[in-house]
Specification:
This protein has 4 domains: 3-168, no CATH class; 174-318, no CATH class; 325-411, no CATH class; 427-640, Methane Monooxygenase Hydroxylase, Chain G, domain 1. 66% of the residues lie in helices and 9% in strands. It has helices at 3-8, 16-45, 55-61, 65-73, 88-109, 111-126, 138-145, 155-172, 191-204, 257-265, 286-289, 303-316, 323-331, 336-348, 354-358, 362-372, 383-387, 389-408, 413-457, 464-495, 499-524, 531-561, 566-598, 604-640, and strands at residues 76-77, 82-84, 135-137, 176-178, 181-184, 216-221, 224-229, 238-243, 247-254, 273-274, 278-281, 290-299. Strands 4, 5, 6, 7, 8, 9, 10, 11 and 12 form a 9-stranded mixed beta sheet that branches. The protein has a 3-stranded antiparallel beta sheet with strand order 1-2-3. Strand 8 (238-243) and strand 9 form a beta hairpin. Helix 20 packs antiparallel against helix 21 (499-524), helix 21 packs antiparallel against helix 24 (604-640) and helix 23 runs antiparallel to helix 24. The longest helix has 45 residues, at 413-457.
Length: 641
């Protein structure tokens, strides 16, 4: 375009799209040159350090990478407060030239703003900040790159304000709008990549809810299509996408390193080549003025390949808004790595975290805990300590999904809170299920000991050695059961589980102790018993085995009641009833044996053996009956809940 003749004809507006494109390109060059200045200072102070590779960033900004590499690599200190570097003067001239280009673009659209920016530039010049010299004071570099809050004007602040003014100008004076993107001077061939980017952006845009951001601008600048999105409200949080005839280049800046890494992780399925996450600093920004820049390049095979990537980029941006806020919140409930894992899942599932934050975040979770489990989670206690790691992650994923669904479907926050509370109860119930599984292991061991007792009393001619070995096996099983009981009590305390579960553990432990005592007594009985007493003892031992089986069946059914299976509650209560019947049978058998002993005809040893053996088995069934009463209470509490 013949720029001078157009001006002469009094039609400067026609130049605006090109000037804005040049101004935005100049902004990219300034940022890169200022980054190179900071890198030069760092290299001068630490000459043995690695020289950062700015090749990808240089090419994306349209600068020759060799010049910046030479400047950084050749930088050295001159005294304590100055840096000398090859190409320093041309770099400073380039910075000034680019600022003039940005001001020219603003002045073309908003002359009063252009005049104010000119005055600010003149003030910076008069202070000597842009003097093109072969050496530069380190303090001057700080003034050039810093944005001190409430401090004097600086070059970096001027550049940031110019960038914002150019963005406003681009949106207000757009030549066209393609699917919501404000576009300047684009060609027909640019419509497809812009539309693809916006398709992805618009698919996930609703997930930002009331948060500002995601306004997109597209500009044709020479042989490059430049798509820009400011994402959220943070000054240093932007993405610039450059599309050429063969490649797509993403330049992404962020004040949070973790979020920058998260952004990169969202494109694991695409063959993007990423530069290292370079750290930069500028006073006045978040996290002590540091921010990070990463560049990804993709050489595409054809238009469809290109457009798929652009759609994926557009769709990913909503998941960056308030990401660090969500990460910090989740970090108070689970480990740091798991918080990121949850957010990655939410992004890949197109659920996001903004709905969760919109409904209150921590307050939402706190209300759910107070409503559904006020005694199960203490103040400041992490979910993974109560539910276990995987269950806590599963619950928080459900929280994000429920929150998003509630807002998208127009549900009330109360309903979302109630749904989250119900899901928390389900997860806590699964914690109970894990504890009940430990109790079930106890019952299994109780049956093993009861079976050994039954085997011992079944011998018509007792073999002292065989019976002793049975008693020793019973002792080992009892010790194993004790270890399970200790482990279960520790878990019950750690998880603040319902007290009734601890009582169930106690009853089974007592039953095992009595059965093991019965096995021990059987091992002491040396002589034969009268057939009618041995038969009664065998019947009683069989009842002991049956009682443990009823206890196991009842507990297994009760564990399923939490899942809302009413049939299982009926099975659990029926098993409890059978357990009571077994206890009554045991009482009757024990009385029968007592009566036969007192009828006489036995020596003292045989009498004592029969009495103590029957009483030990009967006491075990009493413990199992008490277990049954507790199990009934546990089941009924679940049904009432």
């Amino acid at each position: 375009m013949k720029t001078e003749i157009v001006k002469e004809l009094g039609q400067p507006d026609i130049l605006l799209p090109r000037l804005v494109a040049e101004g935005l390109a100049a902004n990219d060059r300034i940022k890169l040159r200022l980054s190179a200045l900071q890198a030069a200072v760092q290299h001068a102070r630490q000459p043995r350090g690695e020289v950062p590779d700015l090749t990808a960033e240089s090419r994306a900004a349209g600068l020759a990478p060799a010049a910046l590499v030479t400047l950084i690599g050749g930088a050295h200190l001159a005294g304590d407060d100055k840096v000398v570097a090859p190409g320093l003067a041309p770099l400073l001239k380039g910075v000034e030239s680019d600022i003039v280009a940005m001001i020219s673009a603003v002045a073309a659209g908003e002359p009063p703003d252009g005049q104010r920016f000119e005055k600010r530039l003149a003030s910076i010049r008069s202070a000597g900040h842009l003097d093109a010299t072969p050496e530069i004071e380190i303090a001057r570099i700080g003034r050039l790159t810093g944005v001190e809050s409430g401090g004097p004007d600086s070059l970096h602040r001027l550049v940031m304000d110019l960038h914002k003014a150019l963005n406003r100008l681009a949106a207000r004076n757009a030549e066209a709008v393609i699917d919501g993107a404000h576009v300047f001077g684009v060609r027909d061939a640019d419509h497809a990549p812009i539309a693809s980017f916006m398709r992805g952006l618009n698919e996930t845009r609703p997930l930002k809810f009331n948060h500002p951001g995601l306004d997109a601008t597209a500009i044709r600048a020479g042989d490059r299509l430049v798509i820009q999105n400011d994402i959220g409200t943070t000054d240093a949080h932007v993405i610039v996408i450059i599309v050429t005839a063969s490649a797509v280049t993403i330049t992404y800046t962020d004040v949070h390193l973790a979020r920058a890494k998260f952004f990169v992780s969202l494109f694991e399925g695409h063959a993007l080549k990423w530069s290292g996450l370079d750290k930069h600093s500028a006073a006045g920004l978040e996290d002590d003025g540091t921010f990070y820049l990463v560049t990804g390049t993709y050489d595409y095979a054809g238009p469809d390949d290109r457009d798929d990537l652009l759609a994926a980029i557009g769709a990913s941006l909503v998941f960056l808004i308030d990401w660090n806020k969500a990460r910090k919140l989740l970090r108070s409930w689970v480990a740091k790595t798991d918080a990121v894992r949850i957010l990655e899942w939410a992004a890949r599932q197109r659920i996001g975290h903004r709905g969760f934050l919109e409904l209150g975040g921590n307050e939402l979770l706190g209300a759910a805990v107070r409503s559904a489990a006020p005694t199960r989670l203490g103040f400041g206690e992490r979910l993974d300590q109560v539910l276990g790691r995987e269950a806590a992650i599963s619950f928080l994923k459900a929280c994000l999904q429920i929150s998003t669904e509630a807002l998208l479907e127009g549900q009330s926050s109360r309903l979302a809170r109630d749904r989250i509370g119900a899901d928390l109860v389900r997860h806590l119930d699964r914690v109970d299920s894990g504890l009940l599984a430990m109790v079930l292991r106890q019952i299994g061991l109780a049956r093993d000991v009861a079976a050994l007792v039954q085997q011992a009393v079944a011998m018509s001619e007792p073999d002292p050695l065989a019976v002793k070995q049975l008693a020793e096996r019973a002792g080992r099983i009892e010790q194993k059961a004790d270890r399970i009981a200790i482990e279960a009590r520790a878990e019950i305390t750690r998880l603040d589980a319902r007290p009734v579960i601890g009582e169930l553990v106690d009853r089974i432990e007592q039953a095992i102790d009595e059965l093991e005592q019965a096995a021990f007594i059987a091992s002491l009985s040396q002589g034969p018993m009268r057939p009618e007493i041995r038969s009664a003892l065998q019947a009683l031992a069989a009842v002991g085995v049956t009682a443990t089986e009823h206890a196991a069946a009842g507990l297994a059914a009760a564990a399923e009641v939490q899942e809302g299976r009413r049939a299982d509650s009926e099975d659990a209560l029926a098993a409890v009833a059978r357990l009571m019947d077994a206890e009554h049978q045991a009482d009757a058998s024990e009385r029968e044996i007592t009566a036969r002993v007192f009828a006489g005809g036995l020596d003292v040893t045989a009498s004592l053996a029969a009495l103590e053996l029957s009483r030990a088995i009967e006491r075990a069934t009493d413990c199992l009956a008490s277990f049954g009463h507790l199990l009934r209470r546990y089941t009924m509490s679940d049904l009432s809940a």
